[in-house]
Design goal:
One of its GO terms (molecular function) is DNA-binding transcription factor activity. This is LysR family transcriptional regulator. One of its GO terms (biological process) is DNA-templated transcription. Belongs to the LysR transcriptional regulatory family. 28% of the residues are buried. It is built from nine helices and 14 strands. It has 294 residues and is of the alpha/beta class. The model has no long low-confidence stretch (mean pLDDT 89). The strands form four sheets. The chain has a five-stranded mixed β-sheet, covered by helices on one side. The chain has a five-stranded mixed β-sheet with strand order 11-8-12-7-13. It has three domains: 82 residues, Arc Repressor Mutant, subunit A (Orthogonal Bundle), CATH 1.10.10.10; 97 residues, Periplasmic binding protein-like II (D-Maltodextrin-Binding Protein, domain 2, 3-Layer(aba) Sandwich), CATH 3.40.190; 103 residues, 3-Layer(aba) Sandwich (D-Maltodextrin-Binding Protein, domain 2). Helices cover 41% and strands 26% of the residues.
């Protein structure tokens, strides 16, 4: 029996929530995953998991074992990484989660520059506006455009952007430009979904946050698609300026309701706190800070 392997499998079950999810991740059968847990429980002489056909929960012994095992596995990973780093070569795979627009428009050029400096590093980037749970272990770094942070992670501010409201000159010529946020109810809205503010648009009214639920005609999780729709005169969009920048430069979109603009949102690189950070992570974070400062 490989106790470290069984320990890793147990920790992933706790983090992913089901045997089948771990089996899929490790490319094993669910029966084999069950076998590993049975071996682990037999060797320890305790039950770690309460299992039914519909639910999975930790026993008190399982919770204590998970907390110590997680720390032990992290220490082992740190030891291996620090030892490998003695070779003074930065290598390995960095797994990144980034918002769709920021990742597609701004991270690809940054990654291209980074890989020229560190050719032995590989980068796996997943684009999703919903922030991942870093504790699950699927990502090393999560890039977030937000004004609220998980207190349990390290957050390094790499840039900032404003959340503003836009429309095309043609739309405004036909429908008229709203002068107050109350007038938005008379307009067609294009809504950005899967963002931290959910179904609401955010505005600043006399220094206070004002949320308005938009009555949208088109919704998407892709800011580029929404900007294109707005440029075609389909309606008004609220989006981060970083998504809209090319359309502002071309004159296809203009900002409206400036007096209600919220303070700038920070763009963070977040990662879990640990005692040792591998060179691939530290060099990438430092590179991003310098790259976006320029």
């Amino acid at each position: 029996m490989d106790k470290f392997n069984n320990m890793r499998v147990f920790c992933r079950i706790v983090e992913l929530g089901t045997f089948s999810a771990v089996a899929k991740e490790l490319k094993l059968s669910t029966m084999m995953i069950s076998k590993y847990i049975a071996q682990l429980e037999a060797s320890l002489g305790v039950v770690l998991l309460h299992r039914t056909t519909r639910s999975l929960s930790l026993t008190s012994a399982g919770e204590a074992y998970y907390n110590r095992s997680k720390q032990l596995l992290e220490d082992l990973a740190d030891l291996e990484a620090s030892t490998a780093q003695l070779g003074e070569r930065v290598k390995g795979t960095i797994k990144i989660s980034a918002p769709i627009d920021f990742g597609g428009m701004y991270m690809v050029p940054a990654i291209e520059r980074y890989l020229k400096q560190y050719p032995e590093v590989k980068i796996l980037m997943s684009l999703d506006n919903r922030p991942p749970n870093l504790r699950v272990g699927s990502f090393d770094i999560s890039l977030l455009v937000t004004d609220t942070l998980d207190p349990g992670v390290v957050a390094r501010k790499i840039a900032e952007t404003e959340l503003c409201t836009y429309a095309s000159p043609a739309y405004l010529a036909e429908k008229g430009e709203p002068q107050t946020i109350d007038e938005l109810s008379n307009h067609q809205c294009l809504h950005y979904v899967d963002t931290p503010h959910g179904e609401f648009w955010l505005f600043n009214v006399d220094g206070e946050l004002k949320k308005i639920k938009s009555d949208w005609v088109l919704a998407s999780n892709n800011g580029r698609a929404l900007c294109e729709a707005a440029a075609l005169g389909m309606g008004i969009v609220q989006a981060p300026r970083l998504s809209v920048a090319p359309y502002l430069q071309s004159g296809e979109l203009v900002e409206i309701l400036r007096q209600y603009r919220r303070p700038a949102l920070a763009i963070y690189a977040t990662y879990l706190q640990r005692r040792f950070y591998p060179a691939k992570l530290t060099t990438f974070i430092d590179f991003l800070l310098a790259y976006f400062e320029r």
